[in-house]
Design goal:
Elements (H helix, E strand, L loop, with lengths): L6 H20 L6 H24 L4 E4 L6 H4 L4 E3 L1 H11 L1 H13 L8 H11 L8 E5 L4 H13 L4 E4 L7 H22 L5 H25 L8 H11 L6 H20 L7 E6 L9 H9 L1 E6 H5 L10 H14 L9 H15 L3 E7 L8 H12 L3 E6 L9 H14 L3
Parallel strand pairs: 1-2, 1-3, 3-4, 5-6, 5-7, 7-8
Helix pairs in contact: 1-2, 2-10, 2-11, 4-5, 5-6, 6-7, 8-14, 9-11, 10-12
Bound molecules: iron/sulfur cluster.
Length: 424
């Protein structure tokens, strides 16, 4: 490996995030500026830490897949890194890198129909962007694409890989089953870290992530108010800001700031200009202008919930015993990020129905991601439901990471036509 690992992440840090933070601290640009500054700061901090550990190796670097959360790794003082979360960061701030990584992957023989999330990660490994991990931990969820993707990554990275089997249901037995595998995995982490498992250390970390989640749950309740006081452009960034750092105090501080900022806006009755309430299913385009900000500015269309923020809606974990903590971590991991895509359609749709009630939505937008065989089959079910319930419904195809597949201009055009046609 000739290049320094995370050279492109460092480019984003020094070329985009730090200058943005400097500008926002001088001039907030809008009422949402102070919260946007905190969002940029937490992203910068996370990236700075990733670059530092990748190069200086003061901690063992564990790459874990997105159906696990960081707490168990932190209890062993390992550095947990979620590759998938970072694909959005490359897409947003260095779109050219997305093209480079995907092309490198396809040129190496990976079929184009594999999800771009995995193609970006494989390409980043081929381009020496990803550091050599000390351990990779993956699961059988959420999808066939990540299953094949991780096999390719295992071949490319000379690192041991540990696999967990994910259940297809979301009940107590399912969490117990997954927790049992996490328990079996503890000796692997003991060996890697050279540390004996300390239940009190795990409890401390889980309590820290519980505090962050409590703020996120309060924030979620505020988003249900009509008009919603939550700045829509920030909603697009929250997931990428916090998903890599649950269990760390700075994550809790950010979640607190997010909640307090939104609560103050609700209490002061700040004008939001909300005319249309939108629930966005699947992941919106991560590149170009902030699509949620654009929708709010142009049409008063406020995205009050999306699938990614929905992933963050997790009840805190009971810390009374190791079993309760592992089962809580299993529940979080399996329902965090795209873990819900492992579920049968009826359970997935139950969440959609709940969103309708909770957020008093006016319409639904579904961006069907190329390569995601888990979102495409749901579209007919969504559509039938929306027809029966008379909910305006827009679906279009895109690739949320790669702007070459469907441009942002095309996406904006579809949204504009939808609002006009439906007279929203
Ligand atoms: S978008 Fe779909 S195919 Fe891609 S990683 Fe998520 S669940 Fe898998």
């Amino acid at each position: 490996m000739d290049k320094k690992p995370f050279a492109k992440l460092e480019e984003i840090l020094n070329g985009v995030l730090k200058p943005a933070a400097a500008t926002l601290s001088q001039n907030p640009l809008s009422n949402d500026g102070p919260l946007m500054l905190k969002t940029v700061e937490i992203m910068s901090r996370n990236i700075e830490e990733a670059v530092d550990v990748a190069r200086n190796r003061q901690k063992k670097f564990v790459w874990h897949e997105f159906c696990l959360t960081p707490e168990l790794f932190l209890a062993f003082d390992l550095y947990p890194f979620v590759g998938e979360t970072h694909t959005s960061i490359y897409a947003r701030y260095l779109q050219d890198a997305i093209g480079e990584f995907i092309d490198a992957t396809e040129n190496a023989g990976v079929p184009p129909e594999v999800c771009s999330m995995d193609k970006v990660l494989i390409g980043a490994i081929l381009s020496d962007e990803i550091p050599q991990p000390d351990l990779i931990v993956t699961t059988s969820a959420p999808c066939d694409s990540s299953r094949i993707g991780y096999q390719v990554m295992e071949k490319l990275l000379d690192a041991p890989m540990h696999r967990l089997d994910a259940p297809f249901t979301n009940d107590a037995d399912a969490f117990k089953y997954y927790a049992g595998q996490m328990r079996n995995f503890i000796p692997v982490l003991e060996e890697l870290s050279g540390k004996k498992f300390d239940i009190d250390r795990l409890r401390e970390i889980v309590e820290e992530s519980n505090r962050a989640l409590e703020y996120l749950l309060e924030w979620d309740l505020l988003r249900r108010l009509r008009p919603s006081p939550a700045p829509p452009s920030i909603l697009l960034n929250v997931y990428a800001a916090v998903n890599n750092c649950f269990g760390k105090p700075h994550c809790t501080e950010y979640c607190k700031a997010l909640y307090e900022f939104t609560r103050e806006r609700a209490e002061s009755g700040a004008a939001t200009g909300e005319k249309i309430r939108v629930v966005w299913q699947h992941v919106p385009p991560q590149f170009g202008d902030n699509i949620y900000g654009w929708m709010a500015d142009e049409f008063g269309a406020v995205v009050v919930d999306d699938t990614r923020c929905g992933y963050l809606r997790q009840a805190p974990i009971d810390t009374s015993s190791l079993d309760s903590m592992l089962q809580g971590l299993a529940r979080h991991g399996l329902n965090m990020t795209m873990g819900k895509n492992r579920l049968p359609a009826r359970l997935y749709m139950a969440d959609f129905l709940r969103a309708r009630q909770d957020y008093s939505l006016d319409c639904v937008i579904v961006s069907a991601h190329a390569g995601c065989k888990h979102c495409w089959p749901l579209i007919g079910i969504y559509r039938d439901f929306a027809r029966t319930e008379n909910i305006p419904f827009l679906v279009f195809d895109d690739d949320f990471l790669d702007s070459r597949v469907v441009s942002l201009a095309t996406v904006k055009n579809k949204i504009e036509q939808f609002f006009r046609t439906m007279k929203l």
